[in-house]
Amino acid sequence: MTGKTILLFEAKSGSAPEGRRSGLGSDDIFAAGRDIVWSASGGVFAGSVDWNGKASITSFPHTECLVVVTGRLVLHSGGSTFHLTSGDSVVVGRGEDITAEAEKGTRWIFCATTAATSSTQGVVAIDRDVTLAPSPPPPAQFVEGDTPQCRLFRAFSDETAGFRAGVWATTPHIRLSRPHPVHELMYILEGQVDVTDGDGTLTSVGPGDAIFVGRGTVNRLSIQGNLKKIFVIAEG
Fold it and tell me: pLDDT tens digits, residue range 203-234?
């Protein structure tokens, strides 16, 4: 499968691409504001949600990682309350009992899967300032110049659904063109990266921007300065 890098949210303009207005099923409490920009077989979806009001559900029908980009979203679940503003992120596990409240002008980007899950993990916050542990760099044959120093914290992992999310950081480097191995949403916390697709299309992103790359998309990454991002990976 080939494709293009999708700019899911541009912080400077506050814009997100229009998608197909649809829920991820009949029980999707955010259906009225959900724009599906990308989807694939295996039940993987990405896009944005522009939603306000209050809604509750006793069993959330899918697994969704969201990053708030504007406004304020409050989630109540399992006796905990999560207050989310720009740059805050959580994963809502399938089967969770939640109540959501959002003020007018609230928008978030998302990557979600409707695949079966191995367990109910609740609502998991992704702390952008969490301590990261060393992680393997990209394969040497795809790195130009010095080997980067990479660090990782995996906040959420459901191997049955093939869905993972967390924070990843790296020192500057160039990752040569290759097909992207997974479906991935990236929300940039720090740094700058130029993404060049196989057809030469360039997408430059910095703090507050978000992109989505589908599995098989051929691209080249030029990472300028230290980079830190929230990542969401779906195998589909």
Answer: 999 999 999 999 999 999 999 999 999 999 99
Q: 3-class DSSP state for residue 149?
A: coil
- Kindly report the number of other CB atoms within 10 A of residue 197's CB atom: 18
Q: How far apart (Å, rounded) are the C-alpha atoms in residues 174 and 186?
A: 17
- Exposure string for 104-135, b = 16+ CB within 10 A, e = fewer: eebbbbbbbbbbebeeebbbbbbebeeeeeee
Spell out a b/e string for 28-38, using b for 16 or more CB atoms within 10 Å of the CB, else e.
bbbbebbbbbb
Q: How far apart are CA 162 and CA 113, in angstroms?
A: 9
Q: Are strands 80-84 and 73-77 parallel, antiparallel or unpaired?
A: antiparallel
Give me the amino acid identity at 18: E
Structure tokens given for 185: 């949403």
Cβ atoms within 10 Å of 179's Cβ, excluding its own: 12
Tens of pLDDT, residue by residue over 177-187, are 999 999 999 99
Note the pLDDT tens digit of each residue in 12-69.
999 999 999 999 999 999 999 999 999 998 899 999 999 999 999 999 999 999 999 9
- Two tokens at 16? 């997100």
Sign of CA dihedral 23, 71, 195, 137: negative
How far, in Å, CA of 19 to CA of 7, rounded? 12
Q: How confident is residue 2, by pLDDT bands cut at 50, 70 and 90? A: low
Q: Going edge to edge, which strands form the sheet with 123-126?
A: 20-21, 34-40, 44-50, 107-113, 63-70, 89-92, 123-126
Calculate mean pLDDT across residues 142-170. 95
